[in-house]
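In this supplementary section we document a worked example of the pipeline. Step one takes a protein sequence of length 310 as its only input; no multiple sequence alignment statistics are reported here. Step two produces a three-dimensional model, which step three serialises into structure tokens for compact storage. The input and output of this example are shown verbatim.
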Amino acid sequence: MKIYFNRKLRRDPWGGGAHFHSSMFDYLLEKGHHVVNKLENNIDVIFMLDPRYELEGCDYLAIKNYKIKNPNTKILFRINECDLRKNTNEIDNLIIEGCKISDKIIFISEWLQNYFQKNNLKCESKVIYNGCNQKWFYPEKNKKINRNFIRLVTHHWSDNWLKGFELYTQLDKFLSKNKNFSFTYIGRYNKNFSPQNTKIIKPLYGKELGDELRKYDIYVTGSQNEPCGMHHIEGASSGMPVLYHFNGGAIADICKNHGEGFYNFQDFLLSLEKIINNYDFYINKIDYNILNIQSCCEEYYKSIMEMIKT
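The serialised model returned by step three reads:
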């Protein structure tokens, strides 16, 4: 098959959609398919990763026009975004329009699927959760923690305030009087986040990021309204329990079995103490199979093959 993704291929510190793209790209090549980077002739499947216009890709209108001229071409739409996530007001309508031209619609979480169904999206769809590359993100063997000094970490590609910077600001202040903890932030950060006690590390990618994450004990995410996210998946796959916001969108779907939630900073401290006191319990609850990108790609491939046969 000839398959086209409507976004530029990236292999650097970028969002979860870019990580999925590169993994699915490699998976399809291994299966012997031809993957192209522009809307050329005789495309069998268009993999729509985003309906918006981009200079290095094309939007749903260009794909719609291609479909009109090439009705046998199938369109698979992977939906990983919504307006609620970043307080925007344009993406929901574009996604609904994109669904109208798609042969197969896949959401990256039940939370996101429910969100659009509540917002009058009436179409058949399925859910496939994200996964990460476990050649890079894997746990340290026989990991033990020093309860007298707990190392906390998070990482983000986006600098949007809703990624958790309210929590990270409170945590930074907490560290000024609590020397039994450290907190490291990896990635781009919001301009209004001015930490005094947090260690900042530049954005990392791939093996370099995995090697860094294994240095820590507990993963923290204050992100809210996440359609699914990758950061908490990479954190857990690196062998850490996860502290997550109850308003974190789809994050709770994955992390509830190997972590603890919170609504405010007082909740956060109580959940932190609970994880520290029962550390091995949470470590043993991590299901690495559901965090694996290989399983994710296999599910998408099954969907492609089903779509082609219809």
